[in-house]
Amino acid sequence: MITKRRGKRRLLALTAAGAIASALLLAACGGTSSADKTATAAAGAPGITPAAASPVTGATASASGSASAITPPADVGKNDKAQITGAGSTALTPFITTIADIYHKDVAPGVSLNYGSIGSGGGISQFTAKTVDFGASDIYLNDQQIQKAGGAVLNIPVIHWAVALTYNIPGFSAKLNFSPDTIAGIYLGTIKTWDDPAIKADNPGVSLPSLGITPVHRSDGSGTTMNFTSFLTDVNADWKAKVGAGLSVNWPGGVGGKGSEGVTAAVSNAPGTIGYVELSYALQNKLPVASVKNAAGDFIKPTLASTTAAVAAQVPTAPADLRFLIVNPPASATTAYPIGASTWVLLYKDYPASKSAEVKAMVDFLWWAIHDGQKYAAQVDYSAMAPNLVQKAEQALKSITIGGQPALGS
Amino acid sequence: MTASGRPPLGARSMRRRTVEDRAMRALIWIAAVVAVLPLLLVLYYVASQGLPALRLSLFTAGPQPVGQAGGGIKPAIVGSMIMVGLGTLIGTPIAVLTGIYVREYASGRAAVVVRFLIDVLAGVPSIIVGLFIYGLVVVPMGNFSAIAGALALAVILIPGVARITDEMLALVPHSVREASYALGVPRWKTVVKVVVPAALNGIVTGVVLSVARIAGEAAPLLFTALGNSVTSTALKQPMDALPLRIYLYASGPYKVWHEQAWAASLVLVGLVLCFALAMRLLFRRPAFS
């Protein structure tokens, strides 16, 4: 009798637990993806405002003038409702999370973007596996990768930036200069200490400590690595012969960090380190950045202006398929920083109707991103797209279809 | 004192024995403290690092754009609760039924085979479980999703709970089953009404331990739930989780990330402790007394 009563109590307790659990499950199933209103309200305080004068405003006007039939306004997606998932380049993360937040608050409250900062290599493979709405990569897809993607692919550039060399030398406050050969030497492991003659030669009159150098590279497949090693391959024969260029290369030494976040963390935590990251990671974390000697022979600091100069020198020659690099601009670009980079979003040309809400919201968002979104680039130390590139990107976005129907503004 | 024979149990010897006794007691006591110390240190350290960053916005706001101050971990808290809850709901019935089958119904050989397979499953690294679900669910679905994350967690939960159920049922004396049979109670009813209730405390402990484990897993969620910077309760969309947030924030360079990673750790430890405590209270009465 006693056992039975206890059994009943236990049964009751179990039923109660089950009821609570299933209520939770029901709530979870019933709920739809909802943007976080509270987060938005809290985020509203710190003022990021559009730059007053932007080179892009002119671009928009000229583009809409020359475009064929209909050119929708930048806020074409204001009534969209969807959660977009993208993944890839960590170099893009500060920019895209900033503008997605603004887009959600000011333009399209129904649209929220979830961006997985997993590196360009990861972005390419998730895009190819069709597990994300868009991939993002700091290097365009080559023909072989496009073939593997199983469908017509568009490489659409959305922003430019600088690959900055950042370092951690305790108690050292002078500015550092690097010639390309010195950078190659450090990453090849032939330059081992900060007071090496090669570094001294680049920095006359600067007293450098005899501290060991630990070069930090990306451990994951990275477009930043691709641009950085492309530059070194361009300018240093030794590097070209021994290492070459790629998303991930066979590093002669040093330590790896996962993502731009990991490299930045490694450099800020360990004395004697040097790493290459997208400029805003260094600046946001108050790390010093080195000037790099360009083809004209001048040491140029990575800044908005010097990156824009590199973009201006290289992008006009960009082919129609939008696949180009902006490393090592010619000597005529005297003020250009030599290791510039771009980020592409990777999209399919045609999407099935089953994902139409996400795809439409995504294309509308990207349309805004290459127009009004560019105004916010400078605040996070990225360089806005050149006008003629915006025009080419417009054509690419207009060509995207959902089940054969144009996606943009549909 | 004479050369032969033991000295009488005098006051001196008594004192020596007392000292020995005290010394051994002290050693045992120290050993016990050393065993509990890591837990206390972990709790203390997580609390001391996490408390300063604990503020209301942590629970009400989502992550800010990268590099900006403020924001919170609401998507991760909501996501962890949903995915761990769902994973437990999916995994526990399967695991408990497996345990009951192995102990009460399976023939000798079948029991050996199933037990071996459960042990193998328990030995599969959680990251592999994540990749398995990625291939099985994420790629065919064409999206990272909370469902995929919950399934990965369920797969990790199953072997632990199944094995504990099996062991706990083994502890129920045979005489209890026989008594039930003698009263003419059928086998299934004996299992449901007599054997399982008798082992319930142990099974619940097993579930609590397994839930605590999956609540702290980041690896199986990396390529299933992906993570989300937006508070989402949609099961077919990517979802955030506390271990994912902690992993991302702890390995990043930003100071505000480090603070929030500690706060998220504290929240995670708190949630797990609360759950364990709640289950203990709910199933407090001993099965046999």
Spell out the blueprint of helices and strands:
The complex is a heterodimer of chains A (410) and B (289).
Chain A: H1 2-30, H2 37-43, H3 55-66, E1 82-88, H4 93-107, E2 111-117, H5 120-128, E3 134-137, H6 143-149, E4 153-167, E5 177-178, H7 180-188, H8 197-202, E6 214-218, H9 223-235, H10 237-242, E7 255-257, H11 259-269, E8 273-278, H12 279-284, E9 291-293, E10 299-300, H13 304-314, E11 340-348, E12 350-351, H14 356-370, H15 387-398, E13 401-402, E14 405-406
Parallel strand pairs in A: 1-2, 1-3, 5-9, 6-7, 6-8, 12-13
Antiparallel strand pairs in A: 3-11, 4-8, 4-11, 9-10, 13-14
Helix pairs in contact in A: 3-15, 14-15
Chain B: H1 11-50, H2 56-60, H3 74-105, H4 108-123, H5 126-141, H6 146-171, H7 174-182, H8 187-215, H9 219-222, H10 242-250, H11 255-282
Provide a short characterization of the protein structure.
Chain A has helices at 2-30, 37-43, 55-66, 93-107, 120-128, 143-149, 180-188, 197-202, 223-235, 237-242, 259-269, 279-284, 304-314, 356-370, 387-398; strands spanning 82-88, 111-117, 134-137, 153-167, 177-178, 214-218, 255-257, 273-278, 291-293, 299-300, 340-348, 350-351, 401-402, 405-406. By secondary structure, chain A is of the alpha/beta class. In chain A, helix 4 links the parallel strand 1 and strand 2.
Structure, described:
- The complex is a heterodimer of chains A (410) and B (289).
- Chain A is built from 15 helices and 14 strands.
- In chain A, β13 and β14 (405-406) form a beta hairpin.
- The longest helix of chain A is centred in the N-terminal third of the chain and has 29 residues, at 2-30.
- In chain A, α3 (55-66) crosses α15 and α14 (356-370) runs antiparallel to α15 (387-398).
- Chain A is elongated and about 65 Å long.
- Chain A has an eight-stranded mixed sheet. A three-stranded mixed sheet of chain A has the order 5-9-10.
- Chain A has two domains: 2-160 and 344-406, 3-Layer(aba) Sandwich (D-Maltodextrin-Binding Protein, domain 2); 163-340, D-Maltodextrin-Binding Protein, domain 2 (3-Layer(aba) Sandwich).
- With 410 residues, chain A is an alpha/beta fold.
- Chain A has helices at residues 2-30, 37-43, 55-66, 93-107, 120-128, 143-149, 180-188, 197-202, 223-235, 237-242, 259-269, 279-284, 304-314, 356-370, 387-398; strands at 82-88, 111-117, 134-137, 153-167, 177-178, 214-218, 255-257, 273-278, 291-293, 299-300, 340-348, 350-351, 401-402, 405-406.
- Residues 11-68 of chain A have low confidence and may be disordered.
- By secondary structure, chain B is mainly alpha-helical.
- Chain B folds into two domains: 9-53; 56-282, MetI-like (MetI-like fold), CATH 1.10.3720.
- Chain B contains eleven helices and no strands.
- Chain B has helices at 11-50, 56-60, 74-105, 108-123, 126-141, 146-171, 174-182, 187-215, 219-222, 242-250, 255-282.
- The mean pLDDT of chain B is 92.
- At the A-B interface, α1, α2, β1, α4 and β2 of A face α3 and α8 of B.
